[in-house]
């Protein structure tokens, strides 16, 4: 496969509003994407040099697409540590100083993974069985072998930059979906699910969640896998999102269909147990 990639001709892509130039071996893309295979093959009939303009794609997203095209993988950046003045008083599993300063009570908030483990129904003492079943249905994830470093970083209170990581998966998913990079699309969804399972619902992530939802509703149709995953995360964490004002923010800032889709996606069993 590698030799076939490097023996193929190079195609120029002009990416982003500033049209940053990237030269790509054609087979790196055409082996994975039927639409690009058709487009680049057709263009080759007319010109020895093919230029493709993607001015609505961020260069950083395109770089991740390139990495996947050549290696069948893409890197997840390390999360930077918070400045010492902010992180100094933070203890493991405690709320961070930004939340304390804002007067927000995040003490009872945990990741989906932690909540599911603490409320495992095998011992017969789960008081919120409906929520536990919902989490198991949509967010149960097997982690074969050693867990990647970013699982741990998403749970740490001394790390920041969450939006960078989550928006990488979301933007790359949208690009893969548009040009039918099927395997990359699946990998983005898998990593987003793992990230949602591991991240602790603190204020910084809530802001990232709002950003992801805005992007999803601007770039995906109803019923899309990405949109549904984010909606289901909101349902699982709705108690905390409402308590801290983020559910109100989402309903006010998102398109009207967000509120409708959110309500209609809540399972009947959860309504019956709550009302």
UniProtKB/TrEMBL annotation:
InterPro entries: BTB/POZ_dom, SKP1/BTB/POZ_sf. It comes from the Eukaryota. SUPFAM superfamilies: POZ domain. It holds the Pfam family BTB. This is BTB domain-containing protein. Residues 9-78 form the BTB domain. It comes from Colletotrichum sublineola.
């Amino acid at each position: 496969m590698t030799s076939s990639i490097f023996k193929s001709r190079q195609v120029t892509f002009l990416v982003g509003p500033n049209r940053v130039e990237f030269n790509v071996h054609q087979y790196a893309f055409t082996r994975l994407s039927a639409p690009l295979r058709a487009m680049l093959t057709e263009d080759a009939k007319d010109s020895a040099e093919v230029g493709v303009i993607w001015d609505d794609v961020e260069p950083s997203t395109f770089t991740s697409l390139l990495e996947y095209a050549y290696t069948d993988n893409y890197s997840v950046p390390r999360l930077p540590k918070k400045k010492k003045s902010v992180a100094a008083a933070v203890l493991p599993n405690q709320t961070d100083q930004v939340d304390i300063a804002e007067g927000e009570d995040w003490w009872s908030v945990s990741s989906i993974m932690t909540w599911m483990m603490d409320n495992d129904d095998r011992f017969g003492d789960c008081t919120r069985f409906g929520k536990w079943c919902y989490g198991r249905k949509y967010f149960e994830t097997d982690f074969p072998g050693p867990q990647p470093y970013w699982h741990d970083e998403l749970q740490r209170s001394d790390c920041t930059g969450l939006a960078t990581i989550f928006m990488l998966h979301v933007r790359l998913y949208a690009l893969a979906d548009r040009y039918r990079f099927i395997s990359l699309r699946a990998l983005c969804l898998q990593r987003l699910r793992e990230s949602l399972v591991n991240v602790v619902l603190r204020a910084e992530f809530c802001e990232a969640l709002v950003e992801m939802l805005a992007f999803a509703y601007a770039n995906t149709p109803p019923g899309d896998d990405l949109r549904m995953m984010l909606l289901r995360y909101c349902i699982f964490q709705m108690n905390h999102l409402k308590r801290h004002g983020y559910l109100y923010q989402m309903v006010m800032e998102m398109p009207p269909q967000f509120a409708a889709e959110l309500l209609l996606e809540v399972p009947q069993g959860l309504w019956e147990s709550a009302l």
